[in-house]
Design goal:
Layout (H helix, E strand, L loop, with lengths): L4 H10 L22 E5 L2 E4 L4 E4 L14 H11 L10 H13 L5 E5 L2 H16 L3 E5 L19 H4 L22 E4 L4 H11 L3 E6 L15 H11 L3 E5 L12 H5 L5 E4 L10 E5 L1 H8 L13 H16 L2 H22 L4 E5 L3 E6 L8 H4 L4 H13 L2 E2 L5 E3 L6 H17 L1
Parallel strand pairs: 3-13, 5-6, 5-7, 7-8, 8-9
Antiparallel strand pairs: 1-2, 2-3, 4-10, 9-10, 11-12, 12-14
Helix pairs in contact: 2-10, 3-10, 4-9, 6-7, 11-14
The structure holds pyridoxal-5'-phosphate.
The site of pyridoxal-5'-phosphate has 14 residues, from α4.
């Protein structure tokens, strides 16, 4: 049973200088409070109390090849010794862009940024500029970063607060949002093709873009209903709307070319980030030439002092080389499936109503009576108290899972890691 005294002490000290003791809001919500780590390697991460965890959070997704992968480290060390940032171009950027062109179906042109949030905003700018229309459609339960026009509807209300499916209520996630940013978008429940079609038929003259996580990973791990993404694709083409896939989570993880490769649906624009560079700050907005042309010719401005620094580009190249060389993605799927099946068996044997959903590379465990969960309104039926006990019990016994029940698998995980996680899960679930 783990204890966390050293982390608790450091947190008190950190609160005197770092607002809330952390550098990102989400880091407050570890169990039992923000934890301070010392190092991480492969599938393992270690904290200041000497606790060792098998890490299924993978730093909220980025560590697809595992922590501290030697090839990525080597690539960064080799290239960063030339300096870090030139306010000018360097050759490795072209190599990375050419690699991404080969593996991501819609990536005819691209720009590199620092994180998913700003790349999302760049995509909106391109969509508005090309279509001359002001708004985007987004979906309940999807997360597209923390900036103003997407920081709505992210707190978890009750189903009643959400209002009707046709006209959902959205609430600000944070104080300080300009009220007018709520006019930038229309919110809809996800996985409902009829409602989407009706809305677009009615309002297409004001809709520049639809943004979607192609798999809803931020609430549950929910696959699109058959035909749904295809319908989206067709509506966007018909009504001059940009289809934007937010592949910040699905990128490189569902397939090297992202969910667009996996589902064979090609969006107009897409955002890749998290798993791209093993924790180095880089993202990409990629897209079809006729959309990205607006950035190429300077109609749409995209900039950033820190973009495409030597170490971030080298880390991305190194990560892709690791992914391409081995059978990494196959290995990740195999382990993910093993974990999903194991968790289902344990749930049955311990009489727990646990729904395990996902693809394998990422999966979700939620306590619910529902046989399947298809949208955010269903997600709100999950028993959060039970989930909290499960996550805390796992954590106290060396298995680190994201608090909302999401698990990520990396190429560094082993069958033994999965077996250990299942053994702990079995013990904890008997106690819940
Ligand atoms: N889009 C999705 C689907 C995400 O999951 C996230 C972050 O979790 C973002 C965008 C924002 O990315 P970042 O945190 O890199 O700004």
């Amino acid at each position: 049973m783990y204890t966390y005294e050293a982390s608790a002490k450091l947190l008190e000290r950190a609160k005197q200088s770092l607002a809330g003791g952390v550098s990102s809001e989400f880091r407050k919500y570890n169990h039992p409070h923000a934890i301070f780590y010392t190092h991480a390697n492969g599938s393992r991460i270690y904290d200041v109390d000497g606790n060792e965890y098998i890490d299924f959070t993978l730093s909220q997704g980025p560590m697809l090849v595992g922590h501290n992968h030697p090839h990525v480290v080597k690539r960064v060390e080799e290239y960063a010794k030339n300096g870090q940032l030139y306010a000018g171009q360097h050759v490795l950027e072209i190599e990375l862009a050419e690699k991404l062109q080969q593996i991501i179906p819609c990536a005819e042109l691209m720009r590199f940024c620092l994180d998913g949030s700003e790349a999302v905003q760049t995509a909106f700018r391109v969509a508005r500029a090309k279509t001359g229309k002001p708004k985007f459609i987004r979906f309940e339960g999807h997360y597209h970063g923390w900036l103003d026009n997407v920081a709505w509807g992210l707190s978890t209300p009750s189903i009643d607060d959400l209002g009707s499916r046709e006209h959902p209520n959205v609430f600000p996630w944070t104080a300080g949002l300009p009220a007018h940013t709520a006019d930038d978008f229309i919110t809809l429940p996800w996985n409902d093709a009829t409602l989407l079609r009706q809305t677009i038929q009615e309002k297409h003259h004001e809709i520049a873009a639809i943004i979607t996580e192609p798999i809803m990973c931020n609430n549950g791990c929910i696959l699109p209903i058959k035909g749904y993404l295809q319908e989206m694709r067709e509506l966007c083409s018909q009504y001059d709307i940009a289809l934007i896939f937010d592949e910040v989570i699905t990128g490189f993880r569902t397939a090297l070319g992202g969910a667009q490769s996996y589902f064979n649906i090609v969006p107009d624009l897409a955002i890749f980030a998290k798993a791209m560079a093993s924790g180095y700050p880089i993202s990409a907005i990629v897209g079809k030439r006729d959309w990205m042309q607006l950035i190429a010719n300077g109609t749409v401005i995209h900039a950033g002092t820190m973009n495409s620094s030597n170490s971030t580009i080298a880390a991305a190249i190194g990560t892709l080389e690791v992914l391409e060389a081995g059978n990494c993605i196959e290995h990740i799927y195999t382990l993910g499936q093993q974990l999903m099946e194991g968790l289902r068996d344990i749930a049955k044997n311990t009489n727990n109503n646990i729904l395990v959903q996902g693809l394998g590379p990422m999966l979700h465990t939620g306590f619910t009576q529902l046989p399947a969960v298809k949208d955010f309104r269903d997600v709100l039926t999950y028993d959060k108290v039970k989930l909290g006990k499960f996550i805390a019990g796992m954590h106290d016994n060396g298995i680190r899972v994201i608090g909302r029940g999401l698990w990520y698998i990396s190429a560094a995980h082993t069958t033994a890691d999965i077996e250990q996680a299942l053994t702990v899960a079995s013990t904890i679930l008997k106690q819940i």
